[in-house]
Design brief:
The complex is a heterodimer of chains A (about 350) and B (about 260).
Chain A (H helix, E strand, L loop, with lengths): L2 E7 L5 H7 L6 H10 L5 E6 L3 E7 L4 H15 L11 E3 L3 H10 L11 H15 L5 H20 L9 H12 L7 E5 L3 H12 L4 E6 L2 H11 L2 E4 L12 E4 L10 H10 L5 E5 L16 E5 L2 H12 L1 H37 L1
Parallel strand pairs in A: 5-6, 5-8, 6-7, 8-9, 9-10
Antiparallel strand pairs in A: 1-3, 1-4, 2-3
Helix pairs in contact in A: 4-6, 4-12, 5-6, 6-12, 7-8
Chain B lengths: L1 H15 L7 H24 L7 H19 L8 H16 L17 H36 L1 H6 L5 H27 L13 H22 L4 H25 L6
The chains are: A alpha/beta (about 350), B mainly alpha (about 260).
Chain lengths: ~350, ~260
């Protein structure tokens, strides 16, 4: 039973398309159940982050048929009717295993070598495991993927330098502000990446942090951890006059900040520079605000070009990582081959 | 010529996004300054006095002071590219200095005599230098600000200083220049003038008053009306461009400065 992957990522599609295909966490178990009950796959894991939406499946169907049905499933569940060409990629073994290992190791991430994706992959796997949607094939492949990620992290220099969304955000802040020491940060939506970004800014001397989250308790917890204070989600705009850097990562399905809303707020701030980091998918901040004076907006796609440059600088490390991945994938597939063969042989009499 | 080459090199640096400092602009500027100094010293020896006696020499002295200031500032790691931005300004000043009538044949005595005259000339020249540096900082601000908005990779990889620091530097240089211009103009008001010259109708006086008002408007706008960021930088560059473009013409029309 081979493992296949169907999905779209920052490499294949723009954020506007990825946000259409994104899965909310609460929806994933039911979607996995649907994949299995419809007979597309026996085991499945859905990974949905701001940079990728991927379905990993162990299926008995022919790969071509499985891809076609998974694509149909994705477009139907998201009510997507426009034509898709190269935005969706489909991989079967051994490329699917290579891909899984690359994703776990951060080699397919927007910011090369970042570790946030490993946490997100573990979370996606745990969710599928908890609801009983994984089996021997995916369990082994994912466990091996986590092992490969650890190996890459310890054996190579792939994480050296600014390789995370958080550190790139800090770099950008340092290109705008004279000093981060007297800057006030606001976190809207207490996600993992926004927490790391806020933490990185605080570690570089940012003066204070304000956290606004729909779940107020979560905002209080994060604010306590960061040494800041929490505000009610509906009150975040009242705090804006004092804020210099905003990190937004809510799960809102629409823009929470647009030009009409920001213009009067900028006047209150006497047009001091404002750095907006929108790491939410769907995006929280209307791209139009970047045309406002003294407003600097960056979304996840904006970091792509920066990551690309790091990519060229770390070519040697990529080659080393890919050698590790190739070796581990070969080992996994050769270990799976006897059982896979016996599985097929077992069914041969039926076919006969 | 060397400042012109430095300006052409600055275009290449700009196209590369100021990613790596290759020291070429620094050494070109240094070469320009050495030749500039040699020419000034040569002229000084030939005249047997300090060569700041007429408008040509004053303009050349201003360019020399600007080049020296830029070279010193560019020793700071975050301001290494200042010479690349200063080169076009120096080149333009050099071209304007070569305009006719700025360098009349020297008489037996220096044209600038007396301490009030010296105060007037030196403070106004220093003010122009300060405005020139402010416009250089303004150009750096506009380059980096545009990159931060629309060419984000270039912004991250460039070695230019943060835009907020550039804005602070621009504002302070304008303020310093404005104070010196005010002192210089005040001293100029106390200079003896030829009979029959209507002071407030005199071209150079009107032009200087206009320049003073422009810089005052920029400072008040920044201080009271949030006229900051890109608009302030554009204003500083625009007013300095006005200064450069009209300096020669107003001097030719002035009965006080070009009797």
């Amino acid at each position: 039973m081979p493992i296949i992957v169907l999905g779209l990522s920052h490499r294949s599609s723009p954020v506007a398309l990825r946000e259409r295909f994104a899965f909310a966490d609460a929806r994933i178990p039911a979607s996995l159940a649907q994949i299995r009950t419809s007979g597309i796959a026996d085991e499945a894991v859905i990974l949905s982050t701001c940079n990728r939406v991927e379905v990993y499946a162990a299926t008995q169907l022919e790969p071509a048929k499985a891809f076609s049905e998974l694509k149909q499933f994705l477009t139907t569940i998201h009510d997507y009717r426009d034509p898709l060409t190269d935005e969706l990629y489909s991989l079967s073994e051994p490329q699917s295993i290579h891909h899984l290992f690359k994703v776990a190791g951060g080699l397919d991430s927007m910011v090369l070598g970042e570790t946030e994706i490993l946490g997100q992959l573990k979370q996606a796997y745990d969710l599928a495991l908890k609801h009983g949607h994984t089996g021997a094939r995916l369990n082994k492949a994912f466990q091996r993927a986590f092992n490969v990620a650890k190996h890459i992290r310890t054996e190579t220099n792939i994480q050296r330098g600014s390789v995370s969304v958080a550190s790139v955000a800090v770099e950008l802040a340092e290109k705008i502000f004279n000093s981060l020491a007297d800057r006030d940060v606001m976190v809207i939506g207490a996600g993992d990446t926004s927490e790391k970004t806020a933490r990185a800014l605080m570690s570089r001397g940012a003066r204070s942090v304000v956290v606004a989250n729909r779940t107020y308790e979560r905002a209080v917890t994060l604010a306590t951890e960061l040494g800041g204070r929490a505000v009610q989600f509906d009150d975040w705009a009242h705090e804006f006059a004092k804020i210099d850097i905003v990190i937004s990562s809510t799960a809102a399905p629409h823009h929470i900040l647009d030009r009409t809303k920001l213009e009067p707020l900028m006047k209150l701030r006497r047009d001091r520079p404002l750095l907006l980091i929108d790491i939410a998918v769907p995006r929280d901040i209307d791209p139009e605000v970047n045309f406002l004076e003294n407003v600097y907006l960056y979304n996840v796609d904006d970091l792509q070009s920066i990551a690309d440059d790091y990519l060229t600088q770390r070519k040697d490390e990529i080659a080393r990582c890919e050698a590790i991945i190739a070796e581990k994938a070969r080992a996994l597939l050769s270990a799976a081959t006897p059982s896979h063969t016996s599985h097929v042989t077992h069914h041969l009499p039926n076919h006969a | 010529m060397v400042y012109g080459v430095c300006m052409i090199h600055a275009v290449f640096l700009w196209r590369k996004g100021f990613r790596q400092h290759d020291h070429v602009s620094f050494f070109l500027m240094l070469l320009g300054l050495v030749l500039h100094t040699a020419a000034m010293v040569g002229r000084g020896f030939s005249l047997q006095r300090c060569p700041v006696n007429n408008l040509y020499e004053a303009t050349i002295f201003l360019a020399w002071a600007l080049a020296l200031a830029c070279l010193i500032v560019s020793l700071l790691p975050r301001l290494r590219f200042v010479s690349a931005f200063a080169a076009p300004v120096l080149f333009v000043i050099g071209v304007f200095a070569l305009m006719p009538s700025l360098d009349p044949p020297h008489g037996p005595k220096p044209e600038f005599t007396g301490w009030v005259t010296s105060l007037h000339a030196s403070f106004i020249l220093l003010a122009y230098g300060s405005f020139g540096l402010a416009s250089v900082a303004g150009m750096m601000f506009l380059t980096q600000q545009h990159n931060l908005k629309f060419n984000k990779l270039r912004a991250v990889l460039s070695l230019l200083p943060p835009i907020q620091r550039l804005e602070i530097v621009t504002g302070r240089l304008v303020l310093v220049g404005f104070v010196m211009l005010t002192i210089g103009l005040y001293a100029g008001g106390h200079l003896p003038r030829p009979d029959g010259v209507a002071y407030w109708k005199e071209t150079k006086v009107v032009w200087s008053g206009l320049l003073w008002a422009f810089y005052l408007a920029l400072l008040i706008g920044r201080w009271r009306f949030a006229f900051a960021g890109r608009r302030f930088a554009c204003g500083v560059i625009g007013v300095f461009a006005f200064l450069l473009l009209t300096f020669w013409g107003t001097n030719l029309l002035s009965t006080l400065h070009n009797p």
